[in-house]
């Protein structure tokens, strides 16, 4: 019989040990270094399954706020999910996940992002979500030449972030429409930890585009190691206007002699989509899966977001039914009942056509879709 409970301060050494055993090899840094907030008794809400005080299964759980312009959503991220071989195959993972889901609900969280999509999650109300385009950008000498022809005051330069950029970088981060809400302390802590980079054994760097002595854009990039000869550098997070981000990429390609750069662009960043439209791209879901503890609570929190944008979605009434389905009501329109996974698609994917009857306003008129950041960035759990 296993005891499931939140980790106490003395349990975190065991959490690091089991996570390193499952997720790390001899050449990688410890999970404790790559995920310092997740393995901290101060910040973490992590749970474990114990057998006579020995940790045999772990789920790392970390709270944060998700910012949609002026609206803040209370959310959790779930990662470092692992079970010791001696405890596998007896349902402890499912029991632990159910406890984590109850915890998210009891705290009042409206979303939980899970860095995984295996059946443990998908059979327990965790669904794929969102939409991201992955562009593969090659060198454009014309853009570099045009920039070089400008006067010194107008010319842009690319360089690595320094400590002197702390305020300017944070201001750019805060300008993003949809992002995790972080202080300057958080940003620098996450930059130095390099959580996702440590998982794929790539080297993280944060580059900025400077013009006239001011930072106009930034890009958080992962570079392949010397052993990853076929690897392509990836930009997982960025800030600034679309044309400035594109120019940063071209200057980086030229300066570092990269052949290509990949960049992950959430569906809502239309300026960057327009700027990169000439390059090949692939559309995929956001990373991992998402769990909604209480759909009615989530929509109550989103009311301010919809009202801010004068979206007709603010008039939708949402009710969670006992059978797990969700009922949607709109004035003078047909009553709708959808499966929870379809509501997730309706909420977070811009290609959710066909889910609502013709008596309803169009998705464009409803303005229902909620933008989310790409969940593999500086903040990755």
Core attributes:
381 residues, alpha+beta, 8-stranded mixed β-sheet, 7-stranded mixed β-sheet, 13 helices, 18 strands, 31% helix, 29% strand, globular
Architecture overview:
This protein is globular. It has 13 helices and 18 strands. Strands 1, 2, 3, 4, 5, 6, 9 and 15 form an 8-stranded mixed β-sheet that branches. Strands 8-10-11-12-13-7-14 form a 7-stranded mixed β-sheet. It has helices spanning 12-23, 31-34, 92-107, 119-122, 141-148, 166-174, 184-193, 195-200, 242-256, 270-275, 295-308, 340-348, 363-366, and strands at residues 3-6, 47-51, 54-68, 71-83, 111-114, 126-127, 132-138, 156-160, 178-180, 203-211, 214-223, 234-240, 260-266, 281-284, 289-291, 317-320, 326-329, 336-338. The mean pLDDT is 95. β3 (54-68) and β4 (71-83) form a beta hairpin. The chain has 381 residues and is α+β, with helices and mostly antiparallel strands.
Given helix and strand content, the structural type is: alpha+beta
Biggest sheet descriptor? 8 strands, mixed
Count of helical stretches:
13
Count the beta strands: 18
Gyration radius (Cα, Å) is 22 Å
- The geometry reads as globular
End-to-end gap: 29 Å
- How much helix is in the residues? 25-40%
Mean pLDDT: 95
Percent of residues in β-strands: 25-35%
Low-confidence stretches: none
């Amino acid at each position: 019989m296993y005891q499931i409970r939140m980790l106490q301060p003395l349990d975190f050494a065991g959490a690091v040990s089991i996570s390193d055993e499952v997720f790390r090899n001899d050449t990688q840094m410890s999970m404790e270094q790559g995920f310092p907030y997740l393995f901290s008794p101060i910040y973490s809400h992590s749970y474990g399954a114990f057998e006579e005080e020995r940790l045999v299964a772990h789920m790392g759980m970390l709270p944060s706020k998700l910012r949609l312009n002026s609206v803040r959503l209370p959310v959790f991220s779930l990662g470092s999910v692992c079970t010791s071989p001696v405890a596998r195959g007896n349902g402890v993972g499912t029991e632990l996940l159910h406890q984590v889901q109850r915890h998210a609900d009891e705290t009042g969280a409206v979303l939980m992002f899970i860095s995984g999509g295996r059946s443990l999650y998908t059979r327990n109300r965790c669904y794929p979500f969102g939409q991201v385009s992955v562009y593969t950008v090659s060198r454009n000498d014309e853009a570099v030449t045009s920039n070089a022809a400008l006067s010194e005051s107008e010319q842009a330069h690319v360089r690595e972030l320094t400590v002197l950029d702390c305020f300017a970088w944070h201001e750019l981060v805060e300008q993003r429409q949809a992002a995790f809400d972080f202080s300057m302390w958080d940003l620098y802590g996450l930059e130095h930890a390099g959580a996702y980079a440590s998982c794929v054994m790539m080297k993280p760097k944060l580059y900025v585009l400077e013009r006239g002595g001011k930072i106009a854009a930034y890009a958080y990039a992962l570079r392949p190691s010397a052993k990853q000869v076929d690897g392509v550098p990836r930009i997982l997070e960025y800030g600034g206007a679309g044309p400035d981000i594109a120019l940063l990429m071209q200057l980086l390609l030229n300066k570092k002699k990269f052949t290509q750069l990949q960049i992950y662009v959430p569906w809502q960043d239309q300026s960057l989509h327009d700027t990169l439209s000439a390059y090949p791209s692939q559309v995929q879901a956001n990373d991992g899966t998402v769990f909604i503890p209480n759909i009615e609570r989530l929509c109550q929190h989103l009311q301010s977001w919809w009202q801010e944008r004068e979206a007709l979605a603010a008039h939708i009434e949402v009710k969670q039914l006992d059978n797990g389905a969700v009922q949607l009501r709109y004035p003078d329109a047909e009553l709708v009942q959808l499966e929870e996974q379809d509501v997730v698609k309706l909420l977070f994917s811009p290609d959710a056509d066909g889910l609502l009857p013709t008596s309803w306003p169009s998705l464009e008129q409803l303005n229902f879709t909620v933008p989310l950041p790409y969940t593999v960035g500086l903040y990755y759990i």
